[in-house]
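User: Could you write out the 3D structure of this protein bound to S-adenosylmethionine? I've included everything you need below.
Assistant: Certainly. Input first, then the structure.
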Amino acid sequence: MAPVTDTLQRPMRDLRISVTDRCNFRCTYCMPKEVFGPGYRFVPRDQLLSFEEIVSLVRVFAERGVSKVRLTGGEPLLRKDVEKLVGMISAVGGIEDLTLTTNGSLLARRAAALAAAGLNRVTVSLDALDDTTFKAMNDVGFPVAAVLEAIDTAAEAGLGPVKVNCVVKRGANEHAVADLATHFRGSGHIVRFIEYMDVGSTNGWRLDEVVPAAEIIDAIDAIHPLEPLPANYPGEVASRFRYRDGQGEIGVIASVTKPFCGSCTRARVSAEGVLYTCLFASTGTSLRDVIRAGGDVGGAVDAVWKRRDDRYSEIRSSHTRSPVPVEMSYIGG
Ligand code: SAM
Ligand code: SF4
Ligand code: SF4
């Protein structure tokens, strides 16, 4: 099948599937407690895509050139039997890279089963190395030590090198940049520092709370000299740097200060099967409805991708945001 490209000639290469919109953390920048409180209405279970429906979608995307699938959420390890889903997706022809992004809280005891089912790697989020900062950011009092243990267990299970995601928010965890870089130097794990983004409408994002990637690099370079590395593949979102003394590498994801929409090849499917073509979208197309009506899912995906013109981050400053953008915990990171 000829690859489908969008209006900016971008092909479809990666698929991010949110398997649940629920989470056991309440990170202040993602699911603030005031909004995601006891009365919050999450997607009802019968509205979620079943594993069979997810796999049927993966097949459709694989036929269109997608070779990388990432499971995300919400917290993907809250979805019951997600190992079974991993096994089913890893058996789909053409899927070369199957990964999962997690907050690490439930990973230590699941890592071996996930690896056995065919998961290739994990990304674990960790925003600080000190409990005071980390607990304030996850807002449920979850300790750092348990996440560190999960990272090591995952690597031992063969899910490494583990990528460790740290969202940097001014006034909250800038000091974690040096701490995390120093801690993971020489460990084989790769820390990736992410600029705080204006996803969704509930985190009260302000531009002055974004710590620019250049500042993050300068802070690390001052204590452990760095040099740039080329991208691993076209469209890689993280800019890579290596320690000059050979102690490994780090990445920065400069989605705010250096947008990469021109090479954005990602499709996103929410837990209830809505296809979004941008992290900052406010509307999507329900593939679940097409599946459940026995319709032409491939045709629906092609039609959406062919008219895709998203480049929100490149034009962020020039427009006021339309309707109500979807939340990160709903669409997945
Ligand atoms: N719960 C899992 C986790 O935290 O790894 C997976 C879902 S989470 C939405 C995926 C990634 O998005 C995490 O690394 C998280 O730190 C990041 N994220 C969430 N909100 C963000 C924001 N406002 N700006 C930048 N990154 C954000
Ligand atoms: Fe949950 Fe991940 Fe969002 Fe934190 S970033 S609230 S762990 S979905
Ligand atoms: Fe892709 Fe949208 Fe992010 Fe641009 S703003 S890189 S189009 S997800």
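The chain has a mean pLDDT of 95.
User: Perfect, thank you.
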